[in-house]
Write a structure and sequence with these properties.
Order of helices and strands: HHHEEEHEEEE
Number of strands: 7
Number of helices: 4
Strand content: 15-25%
Shape: globular
Radius of gyration: 17 Å
Helix content: 25-40%
Length: 171
């Protein structure tokens, strides 16, 4: 019986720790961390030009060190007109694990999403308005996107962080 009690306590603690604090102060703190830390990752990706395996490793390590950030992504530079978007990597939290998924899906044209085109079009970092993510995270979130600008001025890609938010109320 003591063993069952220990197991029950561990399950309870695990369940409590997986809950996300979506208070305004917690969301603001997570957003501040993103604005402080994501530019460093953007510079590293732009300078190193890592392959997909290396990018996934970088995104996983980045998120593992920052539990308040829900997800991170790397999407390559804009595809040529009428071209299929190249593979884009999304790493997010799910059930206490970091899960990698592909964003270049037939039903999700990521270059047309606000988090992507907004950063590419403005050529600067920006936050999206809160939205429900149907492609990767399946939660309410806001995304901070940074366009990765190569030395020749071309867009090498976009790197993002997602912060979970409460569902907006439209009173």
């Amino acid at each position: 019986k003591p063993f069952l009690l220990v197991v029950a306590v561990l399950v309870f603690v695990s369940a409590c720790s997986s809950r996300v604090n979506l208070s305004p102060s917690a969301v603001a703190a997570a957003k501040a961390q993103v604005e402080r830390d994501l530019p460093e990752l953007a510079i590293e990706i732009t300078q190193r030009r890592p392959n997909r395996v290396e990018i996934e490793s970088m995104l996983r390590a980045y998120l593992a060190a920052r539990p308040a950030i829900y997800a991170a992504a790397f999407a390559p530079g804009p595809p040529a007109a009428r071209q299929t978007p190249p593979p884009a990597l999304y790493v997010h939290r799910h059930g206490g694990e970091l899960v990698a998924t592909e964003l270049a899906l037939p039903n999700y044209n990521y270059p047309r999403m606000e988090w992507y085109w907004g950063a590419v079009d403005r050529r600067q970092a920006r936050w999206t308005a809160p939205y429900f993510d149907v492609a990767g995270g399946h939660v309410w979130m806001t995304t901070y996107s940074i366009p990765l600008i190569a030395g020749d001025g071309s867009i090498f890609g976009v790197v993002t962080n997602d912060v979970r938010t409460p569902k907006p109320s439209y009173d």
